[in-house]
UniProtKB/TrEMBL annotation:
PROSITE patterns: OMPA_2
Residue ranges occupied by any OmpA-like domain in the UniProt entry: 185-303
Listed name of the protein: OmpA family protein
Subcellular location: Cell outer membrane
Entry-linked Pfam families: OmpA
Main subcellular location: membrane
Leader sequence segment: 1-16
């Protein structure tokens, strides 16, 4: 907790309307676009999300801060105070269930994990304005880490397009690659099986051999006490009901390979489908839709 309270103001690049905030060191991600649109939530989710879509120079910064024991309010409060001291006016603020819980989280624009992690049971959101500029802030925690995403829009500014990341040089709009399945399961409790490709509306895998499934099976053999949920996902084309069924079938396709050729006991694997409600990327491009059609492995039991 003292780490949060003792933070000092850090000078930040003059990108768009980026304010100075009491956060230490260099953001894990800094992304700026000379002209784009950011949707600012102006109220809680209630059958739909009220938003203000603001065009201009968009700057996003994400911090991952050591903050053992800190609550999301303890993290947000000094940041809110710093904004107000700099002349920003808070126009909307909410916490988890008051925001709209799951529905709110998946309606707003969030950089995918591991760069930005959002605990669906504990997060806070803030929207602020300063003259024509607008800003959104999202705060959550995972273990001893606090995650802070700040996105600001200045309609009158012009900046060079940049993307900088202390941990991953790829643009934030794209999901992280599969990487080390064992590491992701151990450190994050989940891993994207990114080499499982599905066409829009399809539940069929092209073959029965995939590096990610081999890696998952090897990890499960090395950790025989674990159980895993395979969670299927879709892009946003089609109905919610249809996509829920398709996403579950995609998870079933992966499970069939794991319990068949790869020899994992069926009792150790369950399948779920969440349709288009947990995207990794925006669904407004072919690349984004392809990234969202996926299966993830989630550790659900270690006993």
């Amino acid at each position: 907790m003292r780490a949060i309270l003792a933070l000092v103001l850090t000078a930040l690049p003059a990108l768009a309307a980026a304010p100075e905030l009491p956060l230490p060191g260099t953001p894990s991600l800094t992304e700026a676009q000379p002209l784009s649109t950011h949707r600012i939530a102006t109220g809680p989710y209630a059958g739909g999300l009220p938003v203000e879509a603001v065009e201009g120079a968009v700057t996003r910064r994400i911090w991952q801060v050591e903050a053992p024991g800190a609550t999301t309010l303890q993290i947000l409060a000094p940041l809110r105070d710093a904004l107000q001291a700099a002349g920003w006016q808070v126009v909307f603020e909410c916490a988890t269930r008051a925001c709209g819980g799951f529905d709110f989280r998946f309606e707003i624009d969030v950089t995918p994990a591991p760069t930005m992690f959002v605990d669906l049971a504990d997060y806070r959101y803030l929207a602020a304005s300063k003259d024509a500029a607008r800003l959104s802030m999202l705060v959550s925690t995972s273990g001893d880490l606090a995650y802070v995403q700040v996105t600001d829009v200045d309609p009158g500014a012009e900046v060079a397009a940049i993307t900088k990341s202390a941990s991953d040089p790829r643009p934030a709009a794209l999901p992280a690659a599969t990487g080390d399945i064992a590491r992701d399961l151990r450190e994050r409790g989940r891993a994207v099986l990114a080499d499982l490709d599905f066409a829009t509306g399809s539940t069929e895998l092209a073959g029965d051999s995939y590096a990610s499934l081999d890696a998952l099976a090897a990890w499960m053999r090395a950790n025989p006490e674990t159980r895993v949920a395979l969670v299927g996902h879709t892009d946003a084309e089609g109905s919610a009901e249809g996509n829920m069924a398709i996403s579950r079938s995609r998870a079933d396709s992966a499970r069939a390979i794991l319990t068949g050729p790869l020899g994992i006991a069926p009792a150790r694997l369950e399948t779920q489908g969440v349709g288009f409600f947990a995207p990794l990327a925006a669904n407004d491009s072919p690349a984004g839709r392809e990234a969202n059609r996926r299966v993830e492995a989630v550790v659900i039991s270690t006993e």
